[in-house]
Write a sequence for this structure.
RNA sequence: GACCCCGUCGUCUAGCCAGGUCUAGGACACCGGCCUUUCACGCCGGCAACACGGGUUCAAAUCCCGUCGGGGUCGCCA
């Protein structure tokens, strides 16, 4: 097989996702197997949600897993820059080429009109969804004049109005779409940044990516991508859509139903090699069917054609079993080393000590008092369960309240520290007309399993977002089944 | 709703493309046993699936068609 150039192209919004690691693993394997290159490209074209902290966490997580990249924003390479926000001139130039060729056009429709259109389509249960091509009929000269006059606009891809668009997926073969059912995708947003579709195609071509291995959710936009390659006159890469990781109910994996943050797995003491091994088992099996193997062995045996297509349910229990196997196979010294570096690093001990110091009288009491800082989950005994309930509410109502707090207030937090957590909790109390103390005890117990702890916000900050969310989810479950 | 993808034990999968070797194999979970001062590990055994209906064929989990079921997409998010 010829050397393949593959890439992982995460968007730095929020915590690095287990799905990113999954897709990265397969891209990594093909690149290594063929002696090609594995590229990391940061797709930070969403100006509102992208942030630097998230980008750093992506680097850290992928490195932790051992999925080292050959080219990327931090290591450079011959096809840079590898951060899309630094490539906007390239996209604009390419978009002009499309406009000149008549393959794209400016659209002046307002957000309001598009919202109304969408609403109407939804309401009337219309079979055609998406943009109606309203601005497509504007004569090019007029459009150019309005653009020059500074009228806000986006650039859309002009899809063929009829005919079939046939695309090819390495695992599924040919897939045919009716061109008439595909709307004119926005390529350039009104802020001048490209959408995924444009940036992705342009970069994959310019970076000479040979195999686009990504998640199945992209299949429906494949015709748009293929049309773009055609409009540019470029040879498309090989497309290979991996099955989507699933929740137990078979919906696309989500943080609401599963821990999806790589940070969580690291924090909970999973070994990177075990997580990788488990991920490889999702949709793939060794020719000899053994289910324990190293990354090197995976790469050696890798063959994309062996990937199975059923959406695999992410089963934490099997991951835990596998992790246990890996842990037991560690040399005693190595075992202690991992414990020290992942669960008991000095930096963490210092943070915990700062909170616990004045609350214990002997060092011997430390662990008993601070145990919850070092475990993944916590137990709720009968007394704790009682305090999980918000005053004046039933357990199910309390569950609902905590769920809202988690999903609408805590999850959207861009930064997680004592100040932001405090502001979020207090804001929630105000909005819900709750007295702080009525909410804080249930949250405290949910997050620590105890009624007596160091100050809540500092405690939550030190525990970290992932452990807090994990325990809150568990507490919500417990509340639901009470009485 | 429209379009697209998928469909082997509860879960991850092997087998399917090149139909017989499949009374469908392995792993997790579960159950039972052995080991053991306890727990865990480990070992042994057990339970458990080709979604359904038609067709092709001497023969179908494997090929074809339909049905049903599940999922994804339909954002100036990626």
């Amino acid at each position: 097989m010829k050397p393949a150039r593959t890439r992982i192209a995460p968007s730095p919004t929020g915590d690095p996702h287990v799905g990113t690691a999954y897709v990265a693993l397969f891209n990594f394997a093909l690149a290594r197997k063929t002696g090609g290159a594995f590229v990391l490209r940061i797709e930070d074209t969403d100006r509102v949600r992208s942030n630097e902290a998230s980008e750093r966490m992506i680097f850290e997580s992928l490195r932790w897993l051992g999925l080292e990249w050959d080219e990327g924003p931090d290591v450079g390479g011959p096809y840079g820059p590898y951060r899309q926000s630094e490539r906007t001139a390239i996209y604009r130039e390419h978009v002009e080429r499309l406009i000149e060729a008549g393959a794209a056009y400016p659209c002046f429709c307002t957000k309001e009109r598009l919202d109304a259109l969408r609403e109407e389509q939804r309401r009337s249960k219309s079979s055609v969804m998406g943009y109606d091509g309203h601005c497509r009929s504007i004569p090019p000269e007029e459009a150019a004049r309005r653009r020059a006059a500074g009228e806000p606009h986006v650039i859309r891809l002009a899809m063929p109005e009829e005919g079939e668009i046939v695309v090819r997926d390495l695992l599924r073969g040919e897939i045919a779409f009716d061109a008439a059912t595909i709307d004119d995708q926005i390529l350039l947003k009104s802020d001048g940044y490209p959408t995924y579709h444009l940036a992705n195609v342009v970069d994959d071509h310019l970076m000479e990516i040979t195999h686009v291995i990504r998640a199945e959710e992209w299949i429906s936009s494949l015709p748009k991508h293929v049309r773009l390659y055609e409009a540019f006159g470029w040879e498309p890469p090989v497309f290979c859509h991996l099955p989507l990781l699933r929740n137990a109910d078979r919906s696309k994996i989500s943080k609401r139903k599963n821990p999806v943050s790589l940070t969580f797995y690291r924090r909970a003491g999973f070994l990177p090699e075990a997580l990788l091994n488990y991920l490889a088992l999702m949709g793939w099996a060794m020719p000899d069917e053994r289910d324990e193997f190293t990354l090197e062995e995976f790469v050696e045996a890798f063959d994309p054609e062996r990937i199975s297509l059923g959406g695999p349910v992410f089963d934490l229990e099997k991951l835990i079993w596998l992790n246990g196997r890996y842990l037991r196979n560690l040399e005693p010294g190595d075992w202690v080393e991992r414990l020290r570096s992942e669960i008991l690093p000095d930096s963490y001990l210092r943070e915990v000590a700062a909170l616990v110091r004045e609350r214990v009288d002997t060092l011997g009491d430390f662990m008993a008092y601070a145990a919850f800082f070092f475990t993944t989950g916590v137990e709720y005994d009968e007394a704790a369960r009682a305090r999980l309930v918000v005053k004046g509410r039933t357990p199910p109502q309390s569950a609902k309240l905590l769920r809202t707090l988690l999903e609408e207030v805590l999850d959207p937090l861009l930064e997680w520290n004592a100040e932001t957590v405090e502001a979020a909790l207090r804001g929630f109390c105000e909005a819900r007309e709750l007295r702080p103390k009525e909410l804080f005890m249930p949250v405290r117990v949910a997050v620590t399993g105890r009624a007596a702890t160091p100050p809540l916000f500092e405690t939550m900050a030190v525990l970290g977002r992932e452990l807090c969310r994990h325990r809150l989810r568990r507490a919500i479950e417990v509340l639901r089944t009470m009485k």
Notes: Chain A has a mean pLDDT of 95.
